[in-house]
Design goal:
The structure holds two protein chains of two kinds. Chain A is an alpha+beta fold. Chain A has eight helices and 20 strands. The relative contact order of chain A is 0.13. Chain B is about 70% helix and about 0% strand. Chain B contains 19 helices and two strands. Chain B is elongated and about 95 Å long.
Chain lengths: ~375, ~400
């Protein structure tokens, strides 16, 4: 996957990047709209998801991502548009016939049933023979490493254990799709990271189709085949994590995922994928950028802090993608240093490894970046 | 510090303890005392009561006992109290009325006279036995008769002759009416509480207010309102006849139906509120979770919501049942003669026949029933989940 290739966006066009997996549309949302009273929370949304894919719905609270999941699960009605699952329209299919495993943020375990009973519930609802139920429950609990806790009630389990029971319960009946609504939000950092890897591993091993709602970008970057970035009821960009990070489709995505320096300027010329960008101080730099920009247009240059290099100011190099400035502040962050630079193109934040610690505030420096690391977006 | 604070804490609690003792423990103890005490004979014939305990119940008591009996008769100056003794003894053994009158007269004239010379009946074991049985200051006669039982002459517990008392019928009727009212409250209260817990905002506020408002209204007012609504020309009959469902008015008042309707309404809050409060603690998305796992709404209800509301249901049922056992005003106002409950019998003994002991005995039976139910409630409502 080339970091510079044009990202797919969901605005107006059908999203067709499937992370190298089968490209048939297993789940498809077309022109899906949801109103709560007079408030429109999802608007004309288009999204296709392939079988076996892990798609994260990422966005700030109130961006419509959870509502979309609730509509897919059947907990919310669809105001307009159509949701299809495996070719079948499911707008009006009741939840209990949808065959989707849902993992809730608060786990939603049945408090009066033991872990084993909770996991057995979906099988019993499907009339699975008793002996088979016991066998599959045991295997599902084993899969989430909770074999010894089968007889415990939810209240007797820790948060992480409850979450794994919920996971086993959502997977045991081999649903067509697994939906997760911020399932790791209530766990502490270490446990959350462990569960992220566990879920990722289960996804690969069982070939599950997973739709995962989160507001945690690291979680989305870690786990997903594709990330759909939501804002104000619309998908801003739907692409693999690397694309979303390296080639954000617009300003919202660039600012929401990771940290970035945005420099206002003008597009000077476009030559294939290479864009010549003019900064306000008159300097010229070369970068890549989103498609559809026109020469002369106002635009923003996005520079990730860790892609910015710092050199001594007197190293008499010159050319594009270099600006001069002075270090205003250095912040020690353990595994890296954040360096704030007042440069000729504006204030920049750079991220350096600990080995570059010889810099001190006040030092005159030259900042530079690679042509492939600058990304021009519409303002 | 600790040595000082302990008596001080006790001092602070003393008004509460005094209150509890004065208004709770003392009345309770005096009711229990009233139900089992029978001091008539032991007070008038103290020497006899003390001596006759040693008699084996064979033949005739010894001369010492007979002498004590004569002394008691001579010492007694209260003819009214002696009349009580005679009545009590006569109810155990007929013939005492004439015998005692004669004996008291003769013994007062000649204190040393042998009793057998006054009357041959003093040679019969049964008469002495009657004195011995009644000599104790305690009796179970009231408690037994509250359950339509009595002691036979031989001391065995036996049923009272049919038709002489209806306490047992009325107790069973009380339990039956209470059970019906509890069931009606459950059938109305459970769906009501579930709907109230599932809606939000003003709808919930209105539903809860509808439950609470009657609770703040006087029981008498609510019952009187039902008398107006249920009567022959009341609103129910008028509406039903108006829309042509019935041609003659239904008899809804002064019968069992009226009692059940009015009591169900009065007690409904005690069913709705416990279930509602339990349902509020159930996470809202459990039903969604059940649906996503493939449960039809009906099965999700039976497997998830119903078991989770069970504790509220048990609390509500016992609250309603325990309250309705003691109901008096409502059956008295909207019930017929055959709908009166045990409280009205207690009221009759206490206020009309001044038989405090019978009233206390029936009250004690009611108290024991309630305590049994409370024990059951405690056991059923115990948290089944051991805490970590």
């Amino acid at each position: 996957m080339n970091a510079g290739s044009p990202p797919a966006t969901a605005q107006g066009t059908r999203t067709q990047c499937t992370g190298g997996l089968v490209a048939d549309d297993f789940i498809s949302f077309s022109k899906v709209t949801k109103d709560f009273g007079s408030l429109r929370v999802v608007e004309d949304l288009e999204l296709d998801i392939a079988q076996g894919e892990f798609v994260s719905l990422l966005g700030p609270s109130g961006s419509g991502k959870t509502t979309l999941l609730m509509m897919l699960a059947g907990f919310e009605t669809v105001t307009g548009g159509e949701i299809r699952l495996d070719g079948q329209r499911i707008n009006d299919l009741p939840t209990y016939k949808r065959d989707m495993g849902v993992v809730f943020q608060n786990y939603a375990l049945f408090p009066h049933m033991t872990a084993a009973k909770n996991v057995a519930f979906p099988l019993e609802m499907r009339g699975t023979p008793r002996a088979e139920v016991a066998d599959r429950v045991a295997r599902a609990l084993e899969m989430v490493k909770l074999g010894p806790f089968a007889g415990r009630l939810p209240i007797q389990l820790s948060g992480g254990q409850q979450q794994r029971v919920a996971l086993a319960r959502a997977l045991v009946f081999e649903p067509r799709v697994v939906l997760m609504d911020e399932p790791l939000g209530a766990l502490d950092k270490q446990l959350r990271e462990q569960m992220q890897l566990d879920i990722r591993e289960l996804h690969h091993r069982l070939g599950l189709t997973i739709i995962f709602v989160t507001h945690d970008q690291d979680e989305a970057l870690t786990m997903s085949d594709r990330i759909a970035v939501f804002n104000q009821g619309q998908i801003q960009q739907c692409a693999p994590p690397r694309h979303v990070y390296d080639s954000p489709a617009n300003r919202f995505v660039a600012e929401f995922i990771g940290e970035t320096n945005l420099l206002a300027g003008k597009v000077r010329a476009i030559d294939g994928r290479a864009i010549t960008f003019a900064l306000p101080d008159g300097s010229i730099c070369r970068a890549r950028g989103v498609p559809g920009l026109a020469p002369g247009a106002e635009a923003l240059l996005s520079l990730r802090p860790e892609r910015i290099g710092i050199g001594a100011a007197d190293a008499a190099i010159d050319g594009p993608n270099i600006a001069r400035g002075e270090i205003a502040d250095i912040i020690y962050q353990g595994d890296h240093l954040r360096v704030v630079i007042d440069s000729s193109v504006g204030r920049l934040v750079a991220q350096l490894g600990r080995k570059d610690a010889e810099w001190t505030p006040g030092a005159k420096v030259a900042v530079s970046f690679d042509e492939a690391d600058g990304w021009v977006i519409a303002p | 510090m600790n040595r000082l604070s302990r008596p001080r804490a006790f001092l602070l609690m003393s008004p509460l303890l005094l209150f509890l003792g004065l208004f709770f423990v003392w009345p309770l103890v005096s009711v229990i005392w009233q139900a089992v005490s029978d001091p008539a004979i032991s007070r008038v014939l103290p020497r006899t009561a003390a001596e006759i305990g040693g008699w084996g119940g064979e033949g005739v008591p010894s001369d010492e006992v007979q002498a004590a009996f004569r002394e008691d008769i001579v010492a007694n100056t209260d003819d009214m109290a002696m009349g009580d003794v005679t009545r009590r003894l006569n109810s155990s053994q007929s013939g005492f009325r004439s015998l005692m009158g004669k004996t008291v007269r003769e013994v007062r004239e000649t204190p040393d006279i042998a009793l057998i010379e006054i009357d041959d009946r003093w040679g019969e074991t049964a008469f002495w036995k009657a004195i011995q049985d009644n000599a104790s200051p305690y009796t179970d006669a009231f408690l037994l008769s509250a359950l339509d039982l009595q002691r036979a002459g031989s001391g065995e517990i036996e049923a009272m002759p049919a038709g002489s008392s209806a306490n047992r019928t009325i107790i069973l009727r009380t339990l039956w009416i209470s059970a019906i009212v509890t069931l009606c409250c459950l059938l109305i209260g459970l769906p009501y509480a579930m709907i109230a817990a599932s809606v939000t905002g003003w709808k919930r506020a209105v539903m809860i207010a509808a439950v609470l408002l009657p609770l703040w209204t006087s029981l008498l007012v609510r019952t009187a309102a039902w008398m107006i609504i249920l009567q022959e020309s009341g609103i129910i009959n008028q509406v039903l006849m108006g829309i042509g469902i019935i041609s003659d008015p239904l008899v809804l008042i002064y019968n069992r139906a009226g009692v059940v309707i009015a009591m169900t309404h009065v007690l409904l809050p005690f069913m709705v509120l416990p279930i509602y409060s339990v349902l509020l603690t159930v996470p809202g998305n459990l039903m969604s979770a059940a649906a996503s796992l493939g449960a039809h709404p009906v099965r999700a209800f039976l497997r998830v919501l119903l078991p989770l509301s069970l504790r509220g249901m048990i609390s509500g049922m016992l609250l309603v049942f325990m309250s309705s056992i003691g109901y008096y005003i409502t059956p008295a106002l909207v019930g017929g003669a055959s709908d009166q409950m045990i409280s009205s019998v207690i009221a009759f003994y206490a206020t009309q026949s001044a038989n405090w002991s019978m009233a206390a005995a029936l009250g004690l039976i009611l108290l024991v029933l309630t305590l049994l139910l409370y024990a059951l409630y405690n056991r059923l409502s115990r948290d089944p989940v051991p805490t970590r």
